Amino acid sequence: MNTFNQIKISRSALVHNYHICRQAAGGAAIMPLVKADGYGHGMIDCARIFAEQGAAAFGVAEAREGVLLRAAGITQPILVLVGVISDTLRTIVEAGLTPVVTDAAVLPELSRVAGACRTEVGLHIKLDAGMGRQGVLPAEFIDTVQAIRRLPHLRIDGIMAHFPMSDDRQSDNTVLVLDMFLKTTGSSADYGLDRCCLHLANSGGLFYVAGARLDMVRPGIALYGYYPDGADGRKNAVSPLLQPAMRFVTRIIQVRTLEAGRSLGYSHLFTTTRPSRIAVLPVGYEDGYLRVLSNRAQVLIHGQRVPVVGRISMNLTLVDVTDLGREVHPGEEVVLLGSQGEEEITADEIADWMQTISYEVLCLFGNLNARTMVE
Ligand SMILES: *Cc1c(COP(=O)(O)O)cnc(C)c1O
């Protein structure tokens, strides 16, 4: 991590996005997903901000993250979505985290650990209603519920599932998963589960799937300012729009004047065709500014777009500032992600250049660089 490169997170954008999600949620409770260090935005800061706005619970991937949130003073339920296995049960119970059970095999030991800690553990069951990744299959659901009811020190507080393609507004799959979830959990009233919390909607489910809001919604990407279907989502959204919360800025460290016919950097991927002004940036793939962006990305200097030229290396990137129409100097701000003046480069645009999705861009940039919260 060098000190030229800075991730800046806008607190007001996070608050704004929380309120957009709350509006879309109707009366449903909100469980912000803050895994992957808040999608690169800083788990603890984000959780505190969302807690102040009324978040009902938080979702993390690992027990370790839940322990950090508890140490930071977060008192809401914290659901551990991944890795509720033998090794982590004691940590989960001692920190008062909520295990999401994806496999009934873990239940006897969870019950024993809860007993040893003299507590009752409220758990959520993850149902595989069509995601096809993890969870209890619908055919095994009632058996799992009965297995839990036979064990001491365990209580079922919630039932959840996850959508595999709710970001695709045209997909029929989402309705099938919703139907399967409702059909499977519908029978649970007979088992005394009518008061447990049903939740299914990620950002796509929240915005695009009528009827998926249920008792609680689990937005992630939307809270950080992006639509699950990327630029299309932004284009088709009704205002007020989500506000991207992350900026990634660096500084020019050198400006060079080169004649025509000079080849630049590793593999000589770019050759000047005219007398050129080339600015050197102290950022590279080590900072998540991946090599695939070579000769492809753009950055903002003085509120204008300029192209990345040549190969991005571990710690250096070159941009062609010849057309900028003014002098640039070492020390001046360069925006890799975010806005400057009237121009904006979004994580969706960078994701297109990287052939991925905004989620990956935010995690890479946010978690590989020094980060500060602004406003
Ligand atoms: C990450 C995650 C979410 C949030 O998904 P987004 O598309 O970012 O809104 C919701 N639910 C579960 C189980 C998740 O793992």
TrEMBL record:
PROSITE patterns: ALANINE_RACEMASE (PS00395). CDD domains: PLPDE_III_AR (cd00430). One of its GO terms (biological process) is D-alanine biosynthetic process. Its cofactor is pyridoxal 5'-phosphate. It comes from the Bacteria. GO terms for molecular function: alanine racemase activity; pyridoxal phosphate binding. InterPro entries: Ala_racemase, Ala_racemase/Decarboxylase_C, Ala_racemase_C, Ala_racemase_N, Ala_racemase_pyridoxalP-BS, PLP-binding_barrel. It is an enzyme of class 5 (isomerase). Pfam families: Ala_racemase_C, Ala_racemase_N. The modification N6-(pyridoxal phosphate)lysine is found at K35. Its EC number is 5.1.1.1. The keyword Cytoplasm does not apply. Residues 245-374 form the Alanine racemase C-terminal domain. Substrate binds at R133, M314. Pathway: Amino-acid biosynthesis; D-alanine biosynthesis; D-alanine from L-alanine: step 1/1. The active site is at K35, Y266. Belongs to the alanine racemase family. Catalyzes the interconversion of L-alanine and D-alanine. May also act on other amino acids. NCBIfam families: alr (TIGR00492). This is Alanine racemase. It comes from Desulfobulbus oligotrophicus.
